[in-house]
Design goal:
Length: 235
């Protein structure tokens, strides 16, 4: 498989085998690697990648990079997949393709204080190309791109497209603020308006605040679950 081509502000690092691009990217970010690095492991069975960023805003605002990367993936797959393939994004990072779970986004940062500059932030992307089981009917709520009409899709092209589209949304966020990101993401959000259980709370997901924190209504009380609650902390 040839090396992917990324936009000028981005660079790539391929890993193989059992090495997790997300873990590798976190380690390199902590050591001070350049922002824009995409660590990736792309095979015929899976697309795994992680993008390193160096936010210049407090962590609470920088967390917008999680939905930005999600929108970037939706735009990328939308450009390469057949038109009937629908992509939606779960608030917590899950990806839905034609209604079924199909991979996820995850996030880590160089700190956990929402009001402080995090130093670095990494968003990981994991998407199955082929089913992880020989009996996909046993897990009807989970799917892979091959099962959803994407048999002709080149995983390397999908990685390149994700990088390009994500960069577009990061640039728009920097230039125009969060409004365009909010508008695009709301049209892709999976389950908004429905009952959810999260962080020990159960209620109706009624929307998000300016920093994409979940607003959950439980009776007369509206709870705010910040997006920073999704951070994966290195043990």
């Amino acid at each position: 498989m040839s090396a992917p081509s990324f936009p000028p502000l981005m660079s790539g690092l391929a890993v193989t085998g059992a090495i997790s691009p997300f873990d590798k990217a976190r380690a390199m970010a902590a050591l001070g690697c350049d922002a824009g690095l995409i660590v990736h492991n792309v095979t015929d069975r899976q697309l795994a990648a992680a993008l390193v960023m160096a936010p210049e805003v407090p962590l609470a605002q920088a967390m917008a990079m999680l939905p930005a990367c999600g929108i970037g993936f939706q735009n990328a797959l939308g450009a390469l997949a057949p038109p009937e393939v629908a992509v939606h994004l779960e608030w917590s990072g899950g990806i839905r393709v034609n209604g079924a779970r199909c991979g996820r986004l995850r996030v880590a940062a160089g700190g956990t204080d929402p009001a402080a500059l995090p130093g670095w932030l990494v968003v990981g992307l994991d998407v199955p190309i082929t089913p992880g089981t020989d009996h996909p009917g046993e897990t009807p709520d989970e799917t892979a791109l091959l099962e959803e009409g994407c048999a002709e899709l080149d995983p390397l092209m999908l990685l390149e497209a994700w990088a390009r589209h994500t960069l577009v949304w990061i640039t728009r966020w920097e230039d125009e603020g969060p409004r365009p990101l909010h508008a695009e993401w709301r049209g892709l959000a999976w389950g908004m308006g429905e009952a959810v259980t999260l962080d020990g709370l159960t209620g109706t997901w009624v929307g998000v605040d300016e920093d994409f924190g979940m607003l959950m209504r439980e009776g007369d009380i509206t709870h705010l679950i910040p997006l920073t609650s999704l951070l994966e902390v290195t043990q």
